């Protein structure tokens, strides 16, 4: 599982999880995990397993992906570090070793 998010109300890092909700001990704010992902990133992206992705996550590519202008595809199993979520069809902005800056679809990756 990912780290607990900061409180969206007051920015406190001391949040804890209680029965599926996140609770902030400092201001008493409670919220659900699905709301958090939208607030934190502004973009909702899910990987092949339906897990929410966040900026800074590391993922693996689950199938060979053809790259325009490159002679080789990005191989299945390629690790991609420090992704950034963006709006659009290809909702992951990242750097792939050997390929450089690249946009991927979140449905073709799996969170590490
Ligand atoms: Zn708070």
UniProtKB/TrEMBL annotation:
Domain of life: Bacteria
Domain Protein YjdM C-terminal: 46-111
Cross-referenced InterPro entries: YjdM, YjdM_C, YjdM_N
One Pfam family in the UniProt entry: YjdM
Domain Protein YjdM N-terminal, residue spans: 3-32
Key words of the record: Hydrolase
Molecular function terms, GO-annotated: hydrolase activity
Coiled coil (residue ranges): none
Keyword Cytoplasm: no
Keyword Hydrolase among UniProt keywords: yes
Family, as annotated: Belongs to the YjdM family.
Stated name of the protein: Phosphonoacetate hydrolase
Provenance organism: Enterococcus dispar ATCC 51266
Lineage: Bacteria, Bacillati, Bacillota, Bacilli, Lactobacillales
């Amino acid at each position: 599982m990912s780290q607990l998010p900061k409180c969206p109300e007051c920015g406190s890092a001391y949040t804890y999880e209680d029965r599926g909700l996140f609770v902030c001990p400092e201001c008493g704010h409670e919220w659900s995990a699905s709301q958090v992902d939208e607030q934190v990133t502004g973009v909702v992206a899910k990987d092949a397993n339906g897990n929410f992705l966040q900026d800074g996550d590391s993922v693996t590519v689950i199938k060979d992906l053809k790259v325009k202008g490159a002679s080789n595809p990005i191989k299945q199993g390629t690790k991609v570090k420090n992704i950034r979520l963006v709006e659009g069809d290809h909702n992951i902005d990242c750097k792939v070793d050997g390929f450089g800056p690249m946009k991927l679809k979140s449905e073709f990756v799996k969170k590490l």
